[in-house]
Amino acid sequence: MAITNGYATLAEFKSYAKISSTDADDDTVLEDLIETASRFIDRKTIRTFYARTETRSFNVPRGRTLKTDDDLISITTLTNGDATVLTTSDYILEPANETPKYAITLKQSSTNIWEHDSDGNTEHVITVLGSWGWDSSVPDDIKTACLEIAKSSNGRRKGKNVGGVARVTAMGVVITPQDITGVAKGIINSFRKRL
Questions:
Q1: Number of domains in the chain
Q2: pLDDT digits over 54-71, tens only?
Q3: Is the distance from CB of 180 to CB of 174 less than 8 angstroms?
């Protein structure tokens, strides 16, 4: 198995957790733990920390600024509601000097305005093909959170870090203490998208 969009590599995890084993079956489990920790971080922060190429649709905004519904890294093609392709001379990404970007503002020097489509519709008529996510590289803090969660999960798998009371529900599911360390929780909270 390979890690898909993981926030740490197998080698980074093994170094972090001080694992010297080269067992292929164990490595597969460790890769799964890293990927699972990465997707947990995505769900809890309500964002991704890897670049995804997608086309997203938006309504015509009031004013010059179109707010996106996800973190934006870069734009490949920005198509206005009237099918005009806007270029970088027409817009800027906001906020300036910060990552992630979450808005597209038409420049004052642009002769374009946000337009409806040929039928007068304003809903989902502006499309943005671009790279979406926090940034094209994983922030060091997010990597640390991923490593912490995966390490704790691996320890529980081996009978470590199982303090507290485990409960068995009526359905027979074993509930154990969370694998989220205080460090990981703090990092996740600091990156959580504010809705």
A1: 2
A2: 999 999 999 999 999 999
A3: no
